[in-house]
Recover the amino acids of this structure.
């Protein structure tokens, strides 16, 4: 038995026999002995075959998984038909290159450019170009791997998974996927997630020891992989996987249902996402919209902030991926535990109490306006709304409104809803005042809990104190919901507590309108809401609110 570690990119436990897929070794000469016309016609035939098989694979994906996933493959065709790229290939053919060499050299130059990008998403596009290159070379050498059939219970083990490889496997999908390369933001990872296949990527150095038939256990959440497990490890994981499958099957029945309490009251159930790529998970996970897009992820891991165009493309792609459902984009929430080196935030003694989030944005007007303009432009592609983090005063909202108005006039665009996060004690206590300026509230319990209890959310030593079930936090939440109801504006919760099954009936009884959770928790949240009638939830809430200590609250909820 041996353990290796990779990155969990698609959750769930998978157990099966390894099935290795190696990229066929292709060799070709660089200089052609044929005429340029003959080479061009070989290339055109390969491109036509590739286009046909890609369109068929996209149609297959569209019926089985969804529009957005099919669009990933159709994107390959757009890339291949790019006039500039095709012109470069033609130039090489004119100089006497073989079709193989011309296609490989030009596509490789794009792979190098994409790989060198500072932006993670752009870097991942290198894998898409590699996918196109390999497919074209295989077609030119008549070594197409189009129809892949795997045995049952196969764990697909490969160097790098490509979207077309997965698309070719929709008829005999693997039980799990293990690769040496690839990241969580790659298209292949997104596809594996929507197809519900547990997957671990980037188990570099470990997969060389695997041969066809090796028994593999992989955990797509933790990234842990066990090779040739002993009997007792196999049994433990087999029963865990079976229990997980049962829960998933039960939850799957909630996928296309509305979010209703046991006595028929409707709630909204949205998802929290970081990258635009995650937007494609929302529909598949049963979400009715995006309640929080943490835009700061676009600014991380790079040396300069994204410009307006790049942000616009990112917001637009999220809006399009959820097909007209609400998309709430939170403006840049940096500082605290979210460091963004490229923005040069000065070292602070108390970063959580410092120059973070809306405070930073309002003092960096050019940077903030770039984001507001990008969001406004993206609003033409869906139901886009703006949300402001860390608000403590109505003057902050008014200042944003003035900037937003200026951007709107520059762009001649319609107004869009402007809501705020309620995550500071000041916002809780003045919720009635803030409600006059905001179109909606979303309660951020991750921060609210730390500020109400003065217990740093990231400090292990304070972890025992950090508890959203503390009577002070529960009273804060109830107060905010009442204020929103009195002002007749919708109120959501996008902090982690919204997905906690013990918190859900309390929030239902308090009158929360919308729950926003990570996509992996959406169905469980809907199932929990369906368990409770409003009178039962209210009776529980009354008992909980009568408790004086957090331990009492937990005891009541435990029973
Ligand atoms: C929150 O504070 O509850 C929240 C949702 O925002 P973040 O976790 O990004 O600070
Ligand atoms: Mg927060």
């Amino acid at each position: 038995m041996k353990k290796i570690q990779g990155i969990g990119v698609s959750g769930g436990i998978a157990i099966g026999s390894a099935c290795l897929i190696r990229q066929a070794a292709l060799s070709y000469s660089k200089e052609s002995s044929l005429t340029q016309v003959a080479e061009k016609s070989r290339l055109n035939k390969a491109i036509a075959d590739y286009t046909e098989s890609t369109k068929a694979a996209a149609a297959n994906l569209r019926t089985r998984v969804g529009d957005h996933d099919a669009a990933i493959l159709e994107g390959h065709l757009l890339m291949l038909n790019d006039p500039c790229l095709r012109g470069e290939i033609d130039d090489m053919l004119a100089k006497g290159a073989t079709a193989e060499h011309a296609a490989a050299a030009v596509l490789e130059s794009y792979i190098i450019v994409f790989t060198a990008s500072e932006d993670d998403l752009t870097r991942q596009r290198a894998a898409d170009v590699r996918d196109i290159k390999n497919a074209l070379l295989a077609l030119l050498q008549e070594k197409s791997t189009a129809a892949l059939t795997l045995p049952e219970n196969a764990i697909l083990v490969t160097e790098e998974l490509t979207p077309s490889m997965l698309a070719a496997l929709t008829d005999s999908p693997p039980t799990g996927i293990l690769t040496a390369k690839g990241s969580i933001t790659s298209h292949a990872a997104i596809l594996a997630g929507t197809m519900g296949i547990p997957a671990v990527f980037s188990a570099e150095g470990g997969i060389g020891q695997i041969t066809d038939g090796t028994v593999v256990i992989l955990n797509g959440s933790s990234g842990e992989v066990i090779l040739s497990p002993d009997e007792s490890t196999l049994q433990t994981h087999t029963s865990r996987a079976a229990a997980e499958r049962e829960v998933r099957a039960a939850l799957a029945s909630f996928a296309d249902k509305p979010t209703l309490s046991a006595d028929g009251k409707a709630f909204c159930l949205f998802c929290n996402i970081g990258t635009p790529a995650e937007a494609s998970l929302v529909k598949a996970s049963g979400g009715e919209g995006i309640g929080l897009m943490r835009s700061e992820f676009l600014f991380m891991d790079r040396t300069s902030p994204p410009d307006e165009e790049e942000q616009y493309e990112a917001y637009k792609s999220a809006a399009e991926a959820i097909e007209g459902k609400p998309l709430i984009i939170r403006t840049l929430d940096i500082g605290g535990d979210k460091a963004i080196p490229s923005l040069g935030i000065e070292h602070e003694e108390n970063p959580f109490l410092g120059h973070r989030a809306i405070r930073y944005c309002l003092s960096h007007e050019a940077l903030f306006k770039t984001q507001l303009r990008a969001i406004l432009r993206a609003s033409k592609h869906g139901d886009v709304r703006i949300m402001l983090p860390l608000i403590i005063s109505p003057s902050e909202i008014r200042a944003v409104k003035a900037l937003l108005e200026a951007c709107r006039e520059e762009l001649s665009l319609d107004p869009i809803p402007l809501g705020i996060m309620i995550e500071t004690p000041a916002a809780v206590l003045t919720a009635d005042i803030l409600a006059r300026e905001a179109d909606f509230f979303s309660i951020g319990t991750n921060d609210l809990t730390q500020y109400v209890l003065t217990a740093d959310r990231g400090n292990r030593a304070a972890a025992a104190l950090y508890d959203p079930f503390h009577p002070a936090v529960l009273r804060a939440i109830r107060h905010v919901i009442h204020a929103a109801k009195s002002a007749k504006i919708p109120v959501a919760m996008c902090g982690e507590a919204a997905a906690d099954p013990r918190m859900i009936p309390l929030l239902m009884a308090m009158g929360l309108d919308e729950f926003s959770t990570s996509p992996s928790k959406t169905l469980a949240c809907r199932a929990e809401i369906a368990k409770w009638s409003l009178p039962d939830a209210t009776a529980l809430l009354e008992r909980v609110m009568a408790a004086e200590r957090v331990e009492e609250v937990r005891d009541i909820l435990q029973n």
